[in-house]
Amino acid sequence: MANRIWKLSILLLFLPVLEACHAQFQKELRYLDLYLGIKPDNNGDIPVEEAAGFATYIESPDELNCDFETECLWRNSPTDNLLDTSDWWYFKKNDEKTFPVQIQPGNPNIPKGEHFIIAGNTTKTPNGAVLSSAPIACQKGFSNLTFSFWLYNNAQVEVIILRAMNRRRHLQVLMRPKMKCDFLGAANEECRVEIPPIKEPFRIGIRAFDLKDNTVGSLAIIDHIRYHGKICQQSPFPSSFSSLRIPPYDPSPMARMSDLSCERPLRSCRWGNMAKSQLSEWRVGRSIDRWIDMFEITANQSHPNSSFLFLAVDSFSPRPYSSLTSQVIPCSQRTTSLSLKYWMKTGTQAEICAVDEDGVALSCAYLEPTDSPGPITIDLDSYSQPFKFTVGIIAFDESSFGLLAISELRVAGLLCTEPAPPVVTTISPPVIQHIFGLQPGNGRYVPYDLSLNCDFTKDYCSQWVNYDGIVKYGVMPRDSDVFPVPKGAKGNVAVFLMQNATVSTLRSRMVPCSYNGRIDVEYMKSQDAQIRICALEQCVDGNDGNGTISIGVSSTTPFYVSIEASSRDDAVAIINKISTSGDFCPLKTAEQTVCDQLVCNFKDTFCSYETIVEKPGDVPVLKTENGATVTLSGGGIRAVLLSPTFDLAYPSILTITLSQSTFGSRVLLCPDVTSDPTLCHELSGPRVLDSSDKQVMFPLDIGARSFSLVLLHDKSIEFGPATFSIKAMELRTVNNEPMCF
């Protein structure tokens, strides 16, 4: 018997590399057959159901019952180097030999031909292997999990309850049920585990661990898995908040645009679901029970004060997810405004769109987390054809679930058949916002004409920049009862919308030079507005209610031109055209501008970057001839280089040349200086093998505005100080071609 166990220890060597099955392992496999009467089957791969079986919730607990004789809904978890560092392997009994007494407590007399799975190792470092089930939507009441098991040489087994989805490729443990399944159990004893109720989607994991011993080896065997309990057959999230389905609405024609308002979803609401599946549809929430848990917020944050509409989906919800869709609007004679409050779970992305009858988007707006709960207002210009509004989730953190709630949904505007409202004679900023359909422009750094000439009827003229958000863009109203416009004035315009005493500027890009140049600005303004054009320390006022103001400029050095508007009370100033004559040097492009901002060789300079000390443990980066350099030791764990604010003309690739000296140190690219490291992108580390220069790349989306390069080393006690050097930053196109020259 001693010889038999000694042989077994050698055989365990094959387990981590069974899939190779090269000639050198055949001898060990023959020993397993000789001494235990077992051999791998199916090349050691556990027979599992197709991937679709693991992408939907099980409908019955019996689906997890498994004797490993056919395909099962159990499979090896992906290795996360924490809980799972090894695998289970598929074996069968090849003869009628009994297991030796050192393998306990399962039945030693396994019938010939029976299948089971094994995990084992002969390393000094403990290893673990997790077998995980298909997802379960939730569990009502207590359940029981049983399975046969055999252990050898200090190997252990446990049952862990896992979240249905991994997070950053790591298994997420919800709980470890109480259990006692060890080597000292009674002969032929099964492992029996009672699992308490679980209110969210989960998987069951059976984990072998403490698989170690480089002299003798250790192993675990399991078989005959049985799961008994009452489960949910679909995700519990849509039924949260004591929800009900949205009642069908009256399809009769609307009498007024405000009929689309939906402040009491269970009473009168001309909105409904646009999807086939009831498992991913909008519902009406009637309570805020578990609101804090579901949205993962603090108790003092806001919530709806009455019934609300919400959509909750997870990775197993049928796609496409439903959109909350309004009744079709036949046409509108003025700007239509949709306002609402909204709440989104972190990681959820959503948008509101106006679409035509065929579903083609006319206009869309993303719901920004920073604007929640609002209310926010989305405007759509007058439209002569049928259209409707939609609200939907477009993406979410699939390691959790997506959740969007809205309330106080109001729609204002005029149907083509509605009578016009009474005439208003005073300037009201909200009214001006509404009748002009004012919206922000395309941003500061988008492709633009390289001259100062600007016709707002054709584009946003991004060579003219407003920094305070006072200037917005809209359409000159037609036959307005609220704001009379000069005859012939029409089309798109730039509008200074000022409240109380306000001063704002629309400034040009830097003009390299000019010779006998002239700039003309066509404008109109309300009674309490003033407008003027300034350049080279001189200004010209526009004194009339509408007309043209002009200024002459000549300069061999760079300068700016600004259009300044101010007010004593609520007022508007409108620009519809800017034209030039004479000689002007071409402006710089958006690409040249962002290259000037972000490209840097860091030799005794930070260029446009700056080093930030934000919190305890931060240390500044230093300018050196060898680059932007910092050493992190016990006195500091983080250093930050903050980029300037920029706008890209198109998606680009940021290329960083750097070096770092110490294992455990990390280089992160974060959205801002206060970002949690888990929300940042890891560019380099913590596995640092040498301190030579290397290049790392990061794609910058067109929506990127700034970033923080975070140098982090909180392992100085274990690995010693870490020195970082940032040598250069460059920009390349998405085709990996140089962008800056």
TrEMBL record:
Residues 1-20 form the signal peptide. One of its GO terms (cellular component) is membrane. PROSITE patterns: MAM_2 (PS50060). InterPro entries: ConA-like_dom_sf (IPR013320), MAM_dom (IPR000998). Residues 64-234 form the MAM domain. It comes from the Eukaryota. Keywords: Signal. This is MAM domain-containing protein. SMART domains: MAM. Transmembrane segments: none annotated.
